[in-house]
């Protein structure tokens, strides 16, 4: 079993609150806002507090506590233009985007941001968002087969001329994209993330993506996923980085952090959480091995709709930092953090938690490694 970590230092991303309602489906106070001005200030705060990435959410219609939402690709570009270093990842759905049209947008965004644009391919989410638009809702593994072609087409048109591709979902003939995205020493084309938990998601991540995003997991769940993912990658002569979702509640005392979690769950918007559960659990349960996203999520897990409490980044700065570094030892390359009060908690994380993470990483580095 391999649990090597590719990155020398673990990286941090945050969920962009471009969707109303916050990151937990609860009536607890959440000092956050989905509007542009708030998000510009937040992005600037994040890049000045050690965050390298931000992930813009994708929803198309009001649902499950999220009444309003800004479109992910355009909002990502706006945040890129308002920042200097932050890399912004736009979540997208194959089936609602053509990969070459998105590749064209991505090339432009990459030039405008000096190489900081990225894509997260979301293979499944809400069935209603497809059927309400008159689009077909494919069976689980078919959605991932489509995403596999989507990822391949995007990379080909970003890196090759006169592209030919004959798939079951996309057919490209003699297509050349210009300008192509920037080719930098850090990456040959915009980074491609593949989200999911299922076997099909792991296969796509290992074969075609640069990064694999997982829902929240404990240590055992992370180890099992990383082992699968990197076995697939090695079989295809590739390396893939691993990102993990986690809802971060760092407070001066453990009691304060645990009390905050308890209040979040006690004030959960039960109809919205249960509606969300009914909408998404069919996706994971539709897989043959029941390994898909949300297949075994409890009500409490789903109050944070990407199982963020499962990662257990909850406690004092020391406790949170120690757990983050423990995940790094298992092979996690990036933590995707959600917060209750985004602005002040990202500042708190940068001041109180991140320095401890770097100290622990330095202390555990092999002799002779800076």
Verbal overview:
- 43% of the residues lie in helices and 15% in strands.
- With 370 residues, it is an alpha/beta fold.
- It has an eight-stranded parallel beta barrel with strand order 1-2-3-4-7-8-9-11, surrounded by nine helices. A two-stranded antiparallel ribbon has the order 5-6.
- The longest helix has 23 residues, at 342-364.
- The chain is globular.
Which residues form runs of ≥5 with pLDDT under 50? none
Termini separation comes to 26 Å
**Strand segment count:** 11
Could you say which structural class the secondary elements and strand pairing correspond to? alpha/beta
The overall average pLDDT, rounded, is 91
Protein name: Alkanesulfonate monooxygenase
Domain Luciferase-like: 11-333
Keywords: Flavoprotein, FMN, Monooxygenase, Oxidoreductase
GO molecular function: alkanesulfonate monooxygenase activity
Keywords:
370 residues; alpha/beta; TIM Barrel; 8-stranded parallel β-barrel; two-stranded antiparallel sheet; 12 helices; 11 strands; globular
Short description:
This protein has 370 residues and is of the alpha/beta class.
Write the layout of secondary structure elements.
Layout: E1 11-16, H1 36-47, E2 53-56, H2 72-81, E3 87-92, H3 99-112, E4 117-121, H4 127-131, H5 140-159, E5 163-166, E6 171-175, E7 191-195, H6 199-208, E8 211-214, H7 219-235, E9 241-250, H8 254-266, H9 270-285, H10 299-303, E10 313-315, H11 317-330, E11 334-338, H12 342-364
Parallel strand pairs: 1-2, 1-11, 2-3, 3-4, 4-7, 7-8, 8-9, 9-10, 9-11
Antiparallel strand pairs: 5-6
